[in-house]
Predict the 3D structure of the following.
Amino acid sequence: MRPIIEDLENPMVCFSEQRGPKVIGKCACGCGEEIIDGYEHIFWDGYYFDDYECLMRFIGAEWRDV
Ligand SMILES: [Zn+2]
C-alpha cells in the first residue's frame, strides 16, 4: 500500500475540493477579504488580517519617507 499523499499532485487543491474553503471570518480591517482556514494570514492581538497592509490600516500605521 502506498500513502495516499503520493497520488496527489497538489495536496492543497485536493484539500479544498474535499472540504471546501472554510471561512473563519472577515479581515479585521474592514476591507471585506475573507479569512480562510488553511491559508496564511496575519494574526495580531486576536484579529486576523488578509495582508500586512490591512494590519497597518487597522492600527493606524503608515509608510512614511524619513
Ligand atoms: Zn483587510
Q: What stands out?
A: The chain has a mean pLDDT of 83. Helices lie at 11-19, 52-59. DSSP finds two helices and four strands in the chain. The pocket of zinc ion is lined by residues 27, 29, 31, 33, 49-50, 54 (CB under 6 Å).
